[in-house]
């Protein structure tokens, strides 16, 4: 990895972290979602500062390129997030159906 | 001061007769059950018995039920509100002292541990959150997870502005940073009478991790709102 690439990665991670922090400050998403994104952004910063961690783990697992190890982790993390979002969207859709139904019944009763 | 006791209830049909009987016997003021989309006939029971209640058509969780109760209280002109859980854990005899605590504070928390109290895993969890609160706000609380609380006029206004203000310890951290005053008063609690709590061991750990992360990472950096 060239020095330039490492500097760019670190800068990207840091900017991401600042971006998330700005949204936290303005409370633009629910706390439990912000905890996830803040933790992920911090993890990226740490990883860009100490890539030895990724190199050590990939050596331990016999993965040839540390980049592949990082990809594996990030893809897994994203998959769990997408699944969690699917569950929550399904729940929200069901609730919307019930609420719309309740409103229609309410309007019929109290026009 | 016009006061309302809010009783959030999710599937508490077995416990509500006891809770309402005790409230009527020991508390002269108004109370309001907020049925959080129960599936065990809680709503039908409230209607049959004529208890004052709001019925949420879907299950929103404690935060949504609490918020609904607060908004109702504000619109009806109540100046102070107490939360008393529908599972029978919170003895109504302490409501008077909680409301009296509002003379010096915006939120009065009924604490199980002001006098030491029994040591337990739950107590340890509460202490850990208390440490997080002390580090970020400087306020010492012995029982931050207690849901047995009274809210004064300033807290009512603040908590009904919407957006992530669950009656939980992490909201308290933000409230304290905004300049809210919080006091603790000694209470005792009973074990829940019937049914099961949603706090299984795994859920308790998840709850603790989320609360600590929220107190240390989010609420500490969140923009303050004037009270």
Helices, strands, pairings?
The complex is a heterodimer of chains A (111) and B (227).
Chain A: H1 3-25, H2 31-49, H3 52-61, H4 66-109
Chain B: E1 3-9, H1 16-26, E2 30-36, H2 42-49, E3 53-56, H3 62-75, E4 80-83, H4 95-101, E5 107-111, H5 121-137, E6 149-151, H6 153-159, H7 169-177, E7 182-186, H8 201-219
Parallel strand pairs in B: 1-2, 1-4, 2-3, 5-7
Antiparallel strand pairs in B: 4-6, 5-6
List the main descriptive attributes of the protein structure presented here.
heterodimer, A: 111 residues, mainly alpha, 4 helices, elongated, B: 227 residues, alpha/beta, seven-stranded mixed beta sheet
Q: How many DSSP helices of chain B? A: 8
Share of helical residues of chain B = 40-55%
Please tally the β strands of chain B and state the result: 7
Task: Assign the structural class of chain B, choosing from mainly alpha, mainly beta, alpha/beta, alpha+beta, or little secondary structure.
Answer: alpha/beta
Radius of gyration of chain B in whole Å, from Cα?
17 Å
Describe the model.
The complex is a heterodimer of chains A (111) and B (227). With 111 residues, chain A is mainly alpha-helical. Chain A has helices at 3-25, 31-49, 52-61, 66-109. In chain A, helix 1 (3-25) packs antiparallel against helix 2 (31-49) and helix 3 (52-61) packs across helix 4 (66-109). With 227 residues, chain B is an alpha/beta fold. In chain B, helix 5 (121-137) runs parallel beside helix 7 (169-177). Chain B is globular. Chain B starts with a strand and ends in an 8-residue tail after the last helix. The mean pLDDT of chain B is 92. The chains are: A mainly alpha (111), B alpha/beta (227).
């Amino acid at each position: 990895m060239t020095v330039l690439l490492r500097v760019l990665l670190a800068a990207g991670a840091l900017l991401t972290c600042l971006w998330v922090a700005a949204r936290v400050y303005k409370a633009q998403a629910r706390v439990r979602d912000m905890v996830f994104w803040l933790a992920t952004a911090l993890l990226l910063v740490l990883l860009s500062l100490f890539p030895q961690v990724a190199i050590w783990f990939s050596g331990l697992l016999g993965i040839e390129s540390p980049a592949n190890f990082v990809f594996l982790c990030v893809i897994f993390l994203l998959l769990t997030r997408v699944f969690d979002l699917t569950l929550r969207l399904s729940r929200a859709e069901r609730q919307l159906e019930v609420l719309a139904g309740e409103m229609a019944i309410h309007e019929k009763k109290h026009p | 001061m016009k006061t309302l006791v809010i009783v959030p209830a999710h599937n508490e049909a077995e416990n509500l007769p006891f809770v309402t009987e005790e409230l009527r016997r020991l508390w002269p003021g108004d109370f309001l059950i907020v049925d959080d989309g129960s599936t065990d006939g809680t709503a039908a029971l409230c209607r049959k018995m004529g208890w004052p209640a709001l019925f949420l058509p879907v299950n929103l969780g404690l935060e949504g039920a609490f918020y609904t109760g607060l908004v109702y209280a504000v619109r009806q002109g109540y100046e102070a509100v107490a939360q008393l859980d529908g599972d029978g854990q919170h003895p109504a005899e302490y409501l008077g002292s909680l409301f009296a605590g509002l003379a010096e504070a915006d939120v009065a928390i009924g604490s199980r541990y002001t006098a030491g109290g029994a040591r337990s895993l739950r107590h340890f969890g509460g202490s850990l959150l208390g440490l997080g609160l002390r580090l970020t706000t400087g306020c010492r609380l012995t029982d931050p997870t207690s849901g047995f609380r009274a809210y004064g006029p300033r807290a009512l206004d603040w908590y009904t502005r919407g957006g992530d203000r669950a009656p939980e310890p992490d909201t308290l951290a933000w409230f304290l940073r905004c300049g809210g005053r919080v006091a603790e008063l000694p209470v005792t609690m009973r074990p829940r009478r019937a049914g099961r709590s949603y706090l299984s061991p795994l859920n308790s750990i998840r709850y603790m991790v989320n609360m600590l992360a929220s107190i240390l990472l989010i609420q500490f950096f969140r923009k303050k709102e004037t009270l």
